Structure formats: structure tokens, C-alpha cells
Amino acid sequence: MGEFKHKHSLGQNFLKDTKVLTNIIDSVDVKEDDLIIEVGPGHGALTKYLKLFHANLRCYEVDERVKPYLEKFLDEKTEVVFNDFLKVNLEDDIKDIEYNDLYVIANLPYYITTPIIEKMIESPLNVKAMVLMVQNEVADRLSAKCGSKEYGAISVYLNYYYKVEKLFFVSRKAFDPVPKVDSAVIKLEKKEKELELINKDKFFRLV
């Protein structure tokens, strides 16, 4: 990465393993008339592979220092927004993009994994699937099955909306700089029909 100074405060651990990148792309069937949201593209390692879909691509990056790395991806279907993803009004931000299905594919900074997932769930946008790189222990909790020791409130919350699957383990050595923990890729696929609840708000307060 040359002389680039990674910011620990931004969770900057850039993915460099091409096999992992290929496996992420192979996990979804994105069409040219779909829209992909990428959060935290960094130097564009995953962005380069997402471009292979020839779909609409909107990337959100908070660190403007990586602008020279990302500018080469810009075209009529790809835009990079330098802003905090958690602060943007996503519905308003993509209203001018014509698309069929919406996907979120990202190597997420560990410290904002849950807020980003919650933002997408609470959004009025219909997200068909999310494929996310997260901390391995978090992946175990998010994809936990009922009765397992990892199963908890976040597992119940996610399973109401999505079919959650842990796709594969990713060694810490796949990143630069090398983080202190291993990662995993999970897939959240929107359920066609949600469970019928008498009082949805009361249910989630109880959980």
C-alpha cells in the first residue's frame, strides 16, 4: 500500500486476497440492471471485482485520502460518495438511479458492523441481499441457529427479516495491515415473507 497511513480509528484493514474477493463475487447473482451499495471501499480491492457485474455501483467512503485510488473506477454507472454512510439519507441519495434489485456488498469496519446492518433493515428500501465481511465471532453470532450458545437477541432480530448464512472463514492474513482477529463472510438474504406477529414493536422490545 506504499506510504499510505492506515487509520486504526476507521478500522482500515484492506482486503488483499484475490481468492476471497472472487468467492465474495461468486456468492451473489447480480444483474446489469441492479444496484450495489459498497460501504468502505478503501483502496478499491473489492470495488474492482464488483465492477465485473456491470451493474450500478454506489460506494460510500469516509476517508478522502483514498480518492486517488477510487477515481479510476468512476464511470456512468459508478459513483463514489465521500461521506459517513451512517449519516446519509440513502433513500434520497439513490432516488435518481434506475435499478431492479438492491444489494449491499462490503468489507465492513468491525466497529460499525451492527449499525450498518440496522440502518439497512430499518430503511424503506427493499434490499434483496447483503454480503458482508465481518469479524469471525460476530459472524457466528449473526448466523447462529436456535439452541446454539451463540444464539442471542441479534440472531432473533436478523432472522425475522433475513435468511442468514455464514459463507466462509477468512484468515487475518488476508488483510493489510494484519488485524488482531480473523474474519468471515456472511450472506443475509431477504425472506419473501416475514413472520406474522400480533405486535411487532412489543416483540422486538422483549427480545
Oligomeric state of the chains? Answer: single chain
Q: What level of helicity do the residues show?
A: 25-40%
Termini gap: 44 Å
How many DSSP E strands? Answer: 9
- Biggest sheet character: 7 strands, mixed
Task: Please trace the helix and strand order, writing H or E for each element.
Answer: EHEHEHEHEHEHHEEEH
Cα radius of gyration in angstroms = 17 Å
Percentage beta strand: 25-35%
* Strand line-up across the major sheet: 4-3-2-5-6-9-7
What count of helical segments does DSSP give? 8
Mean pLDDT: 89
Account of the 3D structure:
With 207 residues, the protein is an alpha/beta fold. It has helices spanning 18-26, 45-50, 67-70, 90-93, 113-122, 136-142, 153-161, 200-206; strands spanning 14-15, 35-39, 56-61, 78-82, 102-107, 127-135, 162-170, 175-176, 183-190. The longest helix is centred in the middle third of the chain and has 10 residues, at 113-122.
